[in-house]
Task: structure prediction
Amino acid sequence: MALKGEMKSFWRNKTSVFWTIAFPLLLILLFGAIFSGGGTTNVAIAVQDLNDTPASHAFLDALNHTNLVTMTMVDKNANIDQYIKDNSPTAVLIVPANFTAAFAPHAPNASAILQLRTDPTSQSTGIVMGLVGGISNQFNLQIANGGNKIVMSNSDITQKQFKFIDFFLPGVIALTSMTTTIFWMVSVMTRYRTNGIFKKLTTTPITRYEWLASQIIWQLIVVFISVTVIMLVGIVAFGMSLTLNWIAILTIILSSALFSSMGMILARYIKDEETASSAANAITFPMMFLSGIFFQLSSMPDWLQSIAHVLPLTYVGDALRDSMVYGNDAAAINNMLVVAVLAIFFFIAGVLMSKWKTE
Amino acid sequence: MVETVITVSQLLKKYGDFTAVDGISFEVYAGEVFSLLGPNGAGKTTTVEILECLRTKTGGDVRVLGMDIDHQMRDIKRRIGVLPQDFNCFDLLTVRENIDYFGDMFDKRLPAEDLIKAVDLKDKEDELFKNLSGGLKQRTGVAVAMVNDPDIIFLDEPTTGLDPRARRDVWEVIRALKAKGKTVILTTHYMEEAEVLSDRVGIIDHGKFIAFGTPRDIVDKYGTGSRVIISKCDSVCIDLLKQQWPLGEYKENNVIIRLENKNALAEIIYTIDRSGGNYDQIQVTRPTLEDVFLRLTGRKIVEKGEENAQ
Result:
């Protein structure tokens, strides 16, 4: 119903079309080009396997099979600090001696701490962290499910050929689902309130809930148009291998609802349209950089990480990356549930706070 | 027997200590054009917005089409049409698309085609709303207000800010509504508008009615009698008039004299003729609602009138 009208308005507004479609597209093309470099560049990683058992070998094989890293093995008796001094590797991975023990069925609480030392200034840091993290997740998941841990995970990982764009793209999708919806809701609601369209809407039998829900549905459509464009560019221009599974799709839906609702709430406190976009910027910018959607959270200082854990976008990005990149559905669902709870909370708060009837 | 579509009794609306509507009561009959007339801030818009279920009342009793405004809001909204004050539509939709946007919110609606014809916008139907002039925007607003074929149409200051030509076009649309048998509730601060369009008028000031009835009744009851305006008199003429009608208003070379009895007009014309002076034209005007308002509210011009009366 009202959606047809929104759709027409949207296409006639060149700026909104740019921000929803052209902007994420530019972002992937640009970052994709920067990150992929020559296309086949691998990250050099030095590996010290203190465990040196079939289990640790399987883990390292999985890492090697991603074809994204070139591993240099370091003798397990070598002093790693000295090695770093001598060889200045970009990244060093140390598999602890208790690696096998931690996976043993009789030690449910034991854990093996993989040490990953990276150069924080290097662009490849995020990739390495993502890779190691992803493979670790995969292993953990298999263990948690009690399956044949090593072999299973091994084959799973080897099927997937990670590319740089694969790590970046879920972040762009998360970002788009946030910026598109917040900017739309804030500007539209501020505009409609100041120019009297809300007043006119109030004179019709449609309720606030219905109208706000229609706006969220409309935003879902816009976000999915945007996501489709992003995915197509990822596949066509960068040969990306990611696909959207139901968790990713549900996460995108919930995220759009969450940030639309946030926009509604924000709009309540804004007087005019000029302030609207700066307010939206004020909310989206910190989240863009602090939620680990472009950079791995683990590469940030601790205090920034704790900020990231209260930012909703963190969970959206994590859920998407877990499901799309690492195939870690259990972790993805957990993150998605956080997004779901936040979405419901913000929607209810948003509807209650954006009152139409004037006193 | 006339059917009553709106009953308002002792309507009260307060904002903190400020009383916007101070216990007014009135009825609106089916098929009439009823106007609330008054200056800005008099309480007109607050009153109609309470009837439109946009605002909540502080006290009193209001029934619209026999329904209670506190509990049957949605049913009322289905049967009324509203052109809010400072009306706006979606800028990037055309006239027709805007009508359809709002039309889709009602179960029962009129085709956009008919509405466009009704407000005479046939040649602008595919124009984007933002490109329309003020008058055309208001006409689009009236079309949108009619989309659910309402029994009552509220037009809140439909001609404010329009040029005289556009104002007259909106008047035509309002007359057409009346001709269709719709009840129209109009708020305006243009006295002439209320006088020309309304069957009945309530003149409102500080949240209270100061006069109520048909424009003619109000003028007869509170008016100050007809006046003669003689413009561009020469001094010979003015001197003689001043001697005989010292209470008249003499501003530069224009003269305004109130007619106190039937013979006064003839006497004035005779005096002018006798003086042999020149003038541009003589006009006789009936008092308007404007005069009534100014007299009743005790504002500037009424004070001047009192000076003249002394």
